Amino acid sequence: xxxxxxxxxxxxxxxxxxxxxxxxxxxxxxxxxxxxxxxxxxxxxxxxxxxxxxxxxxxxxxxxxxxxxxxxxxxxxxxxxxxxxxxxxxxxxxxxxxxxxxxxxxxxxxxxxxxxxxxxxxxxxxxxxxxxxxxxxxxxxxxxxxxxxxxxxxxxxxxxxxxxxxxxxxxxxxxxxxxxxxxxxxxxxxxxxxxxxxxxxxxxxxxxxxxxxxxxxxxxxxxxxxxxxxxxxxxxxxxxxxxxxxxxxxxxxxxxxxxxxxxxxxxxxxxxxxxxxxxxxxxxxxxxxxxxxxxxxxxxxxxxxxxxxxxxxxxxxxxxxxxxxxxxxxxxxxxxxxxxxxxxxxxxxxxxxxxxxxxxxxxxxxxxxxxxxxxxxxxxxxxxxxxxxxxxxxxxxxxxxxxxxxxxxxxxxxxxxxxxxxxxxxxxxxxxxxxxxxxxxxxxxxxxxxxxxxxxxxxxxxxxxxxxxxxxxxxxxxxxxxxxxxxxxxxxxxxxxxxxxxxxxxxxxxxxxxxxxxxxxxxxxxxxxxxxxxxxxxxxxxxxxxxxxxxxxxxxxxxxxxxxxxxxxxxxxxxxxxxxxxxxxxxxxxxxxxxxxxxxxxxxxxxxxxxxxxxxxxxxxxxxxxxxxxxxxxxxxxxxxxxxxxxxxxxxxxxxxxxxxxxxxxxxxxxxxxxxxxxxxxxxxxxxxxxxxxxxxxxxxxxxxxxxxxxxxxxxxxxxxxxxx
Length: 725
Prior knowledge:
This protein is α/β, with parallel strands linked by helices. The protein has a 19-stranded mixed sheet that branches. The protein has an 11-stranded mixed sheet with strand order 14-11-45-43-39-36-33-25-19-20-21, with no helix packed on it. The longest helix has 33 residues, at 2-34.
């Protein structure tokens, strides 16, 4: 059935495109026949611009990421010729009288000399020397400026002020129509006029707006599995829409599973689910919920560049760890969180630097409440790290001690999930020896430096090791290397790395994990899906016995009415406290971890964004209530939660020490994209949505998506504005 539908869609798309092209040619031809001689060229130019807007509109309707980048001749007939070249499009039309008209469209900034900020290499054969540059923002999460090209090459400089903005979910298309005797010699080999003599130009500006199609709106979008565990005493997962006209749904490119809870554990009146296997592994009413196949390639696409963030012109704190002591004094450590943990456990009396002044817009009261009333930028340039951590002196316990211990244990399923490596041999290690292999793997968060772990007698040359090297794009190179020694000489029963790299990697990881190699734990913890522990924990401070826990602290966002307060960091954000307030959001180029006894954070509807991370987003509401006794509090979030990697909410755990599971309420939408939003979902791996809670209430509310706009399945576009310049 899936193949049949795909075939029908492809045929429809092709027919639509061909029909559009035929109509354009016919329209121009008829228009040319009726033109008065005195105004023929001007009207021909206008007809060319008007007709070729239809071409651009049809191409965008087929693919909301299209920017004229087919890099080929896409139409080639005696009457009609069109070529796309890295974002530039040129077309020629000849009528029966032999007159030629042309159209040109630029999406390419022709900006390689500035470092290629638009991501399109300069055109190979069709540079267009005109200032009018179109802007493709159909999948954008925020407005983008229209900037004219300048200079001899009409380069677009992103640092120049824009002429005006293109709203999210729209495209601004500027089509140049050309006509006149100066086009007489234009051919497929030389499609552009050599001069402006005898050429009449008309430029048409059109705004095209995306309209959400089937599958375009969902409370949860996940590139990998959606998994909800309600426990033995739970109730149900409920998915609804705030707008009656919107079908409530969740979408996964893998599987959807709801376990535990009541007899009917998935409730969604008039709802729909979309999964990679077309199923819904839950107890539900077939008269209420309709499972279906996930066939769309689109999720909400919100790139890091389009995220509204705090900057150095806002309130500023240097990156590092901020620790609240029992006397409510705040202490700063110019270190990453992992370095701080090692430092403070080695010397629990280390007081760091006492913080006596906080920037304007950030206040700390005598009860451990940190209030943020304006944008707060975490400055990594003035510190040893770009991370931000706020915790009590005791630390913050993310998992039960038993769960936390098991989290550091190597799980062979990680390697089993990696693609088979074909990258073997000396060039894939770091020693120069032939016994090596490498893989490209997704990172949970950026590395401050390359990580290396080794086992064996390094001085005697009998050793093997792992290395993780950050590539700066959310991925890293994972290398296994035993130099000139076959791995079988070092680990009993192991194959040589070059003979079986996958099994060799498995056995190296297993051995390092069993030996409690601390460098290996760092590597494994940095891997997305690895299972190594990057979780937060209460600290062993020996004779120092602080009493404040994460549930005694709070971070409150409290901007003026109608305004927002954004906390932004280019590294990880770890908050070991409750998080509350309205109009607040957190953005991180690393991971976000919020560990506290429940939180209630609402984004400003104007901005819409609640949490955004290139790494994982992890929520935990664990609270210790007595000796070996715990409970989980509730989490309430309003706005859009967006992660390039995985979303995990730890609001329950199956253990005798846990007396209560909490509830998760999300109003807005959650996206676990599984990669860089500039590409298709799942392009870097990951994308899981995983929740353990007594109940889960997901209310899709498109009011929070006004500035973020959905990335619906490609479909018809609406012209909202057009005029000739």
